[in-house]
Write a structure and sequence with these properties.
five-stranded mixed sheet, single chain, alpha+beta, five-stranded antiparallel sheet, ATP Synthase, domain 1
Length: 135
């Protein structure tokens, strides 16, 4: 089977670049699976879980909001956060989730609410990926 080149880029630089068999990612309309020779696509991704199939094994990453460009042989994700499951600190992610939820319960302006909601989405994505890794 042909391979896909998966590249994930954050503001810090390229965080992932490998040949893979399949990528499942969180789109705005729901989860989408990308195989080699996929029709070209440019769409938005939301904070959540990326599942990378390589050989007979799945690898998990948490990503933030961003965009994905798909060609027949390449998947390029541009996002504000990308972490492999093994690099996620579950305790810190849980603390961030609690802080964000507490802050959202307070009276804050729309701009701050958007920033806190993004932080909450990041921490939830990390927690979901880390907890899936343990199963």
């Amino acid at each position: 089977m042909a391979a896909l080149k998966l590249e994930i880029v954050t503001p810090e630089g390229k965080t992932y670049s490998e040949d893979v068999d399949m990528v499942t990612l969180p789109g705005v309309e729901g989860e989408m699976g990308i195989l080699p020779m996929h029709v070209p696509l440019l769409t938005q991704v939301v904070a959540g879980e990326v599942i990378v199939r390589k050989g007979n094994q799945d690898y998990f990453l948490a990503i933030g909001d961003g965009f994905v460009e798909v060609t027949g042989e390449r998947v390029a994700i541009m996002t504000d956060m990308a972490l492999r499951a093994e690099n996620i600190d579950e305790v810190k992610a849980e603390e961030a989730r609690r802080r964000a939820e507490a802050r959202l319960a307070e009276k804050i302006d729309d701009e701050e609410a958007a920033m806190v909601s993004a932080a909450l989405a990041h921490s939830l994505a990390q927690l979901n990926v880390k907890r899936r890794q343990r199963r």
